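Long-time lurker. I teach an intro course on protein structure, and each term I like to show students one example going from raw sequence to a predicted 3D structure in token notation. This year I'd like something fresh instead of my usual example. Would anyone be willing to generate the tokens for the chain below so I can use it in lecture? Attribution to the forum is fine with me.
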Amino acid sequence: MKKLFTSIFSAFCILHSALSFAQTQLPYSPCEMDNLVAYGGEQAENYNCAIEVPMQSLKGTDIVRMQVPINKGAKSINSCTLWLATDVFVKSGKAAPDLLSVDATITHTDDSTPYDMLTATLPEPFHVTGEGELYAGVSFNISEIANDADAKPMIFANIGGCGNLWYHASKSNRVITNKGHEEGLVMPLQLILTGSDIAELSLAGSNFGDVYCKVGTAPEVSFTLENHGMKDISIVNYSYYINDMTYTDFVVLDTPLKGGNYGNSTTIRLEMPRINNVGEYPIDIKVVKVDGTPYEKMLSSGAIYAINSAPQRKPLLEEYTGSWCVWCIQGVIGMNLMNDTHPDDFIGLAYHNGDPMEIMMEHCFPGKPFNYPSAYMDRQIALHPYYGTVNKSLFGIEKDWTEQCNKLALAEINLTAAWDNNERTSLTATTTSRFIRNLHNANLQLAYMLVEDDMFGEGGRWSQGNALSSLEEYAADPNQAKYVQERQILPNFHFNDVVVGVSAKEGKGIEGSLPMEISEGTDYTHSFTFDVDALVNTAGQHIVQNKDKLHVVAVIIDTTTGYIINAQKCSAPTDPAAIADCRMQNAECRMQNFYSLSGQRVGQTFVSRPGIYIKNGKTVVVR
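-- Reply from a regular --
Happy to contribute to a lecture. Here you go:
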């Protein structure tokens, strides 16, 4: 559940007057005023900080005022503005918002509150359309360091997880950094909203979309429930219709969903009745009562698809990294561990920035790096390539990946790779895609990436930075301990999963690679050829080092959402006359490697762990 914001009312003097004229206005903030920290570069400089606004949650509202806490007693603060933008732009050390910017004034709070407030009333309400991206931010200058408050003028909340803060300081932090992901920080900036949806009792839900289940099972649907009103919500009565029957039930929230901060939310998980026949089952979930008060509203919609069998899902992890990035050694550790632990099923791509393995500029990456290193799973879930979605969770990426593996895939992909000539100058990848149900107006496209392992070179730009060097607090983690003993610069480093070629700019799909009308069980074949000898990095230098170390990754992209619905990989054949097939390669691995009793290959490097394994059809016990 999102951090709630009800405690702000008593703390923020400015709010008392804002809320005095009835309940037509309601604040939104990404967090409550708990676990506050003062933050700053301890020098005279410009500050530009922003949060990402949840557009879909605030869709249809109007922003009329903005406010944000600053450290009480800052004497040298000047040129204060609050602003809205479609991205976090900084030019010449100052924010450059493209939507609006309003001069802000300081409102002093009482002595018991450790912060004052920067406030600004918009000249006219800003309507939130729900389309694109929206950032709300603050900018100001500290002209000199007259006291401790000037040294650390910002006030952030430390939530210890995935926060919401884009941070820039013109001298001490010159590159815009997502401190939310890096340090778990949130800026408690507040938006004062008006709108027809704001009332004493008001809630909304997200659509749960398409859910797949196997015949004979009871599927679960999940969606987000948001409080858009003043009252807390504890019990929600609902009804839905499925399989010619109407069902009514209620859910008691573990913790009341607080009112008073627009968009406070929680996740609702509902178990549907068992489905015994193959088919499509549309569902509309309606609220009928809230805490005993009649309240009728559509809450969530979607469809359940019951199927007999489903393809294996292979999530795609795309990492953004660079040899210059000292903390990217953690991404190296995470990616290598995933390859070692799940050699058949893990598919990772490393997009490099600012080193000899860079093939596209950062703004052309398939995903927007929120930091270095950063990663996205299936272009949907933002995470750290070692810790995963939970801050400082050791090898947490494996848990996130496993959860994604357990989701049913809409299609399977078989992939082959073959050289076009004996000189191995070009490599053709061929996919055969098969879907588990009919799709109408399917906005799906294929994309291919050429990947090389074991890349290395001479010179400083081929050396990997190592922030773990001599940091003893990381020595307790067996996965990172090795690098605590290493130097800060690791020369002659070998890099894996390096993307050296893509089938389309920005890793996008190929138009027309899959039809708009898709029939269940039909094979759809498509090919793409990489001109391997023509591939270059951004400096124009030939990038492929060793053609024996190449493999191809193919993905199906839902262009409506941008998400990847499944992926596959296949090594390029070392014999120019051979055809490599992902199914044959997996079969060869099964003959040569150890497997858990659930059938998952665990890799040669892990058979020393105690357990029961299968090798060559025989049970092996490791004690």
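Some talking points for your students: DSSP finds nine helices and 40 strands in the chain. The two ends are 42 Å apart (CA to CA).
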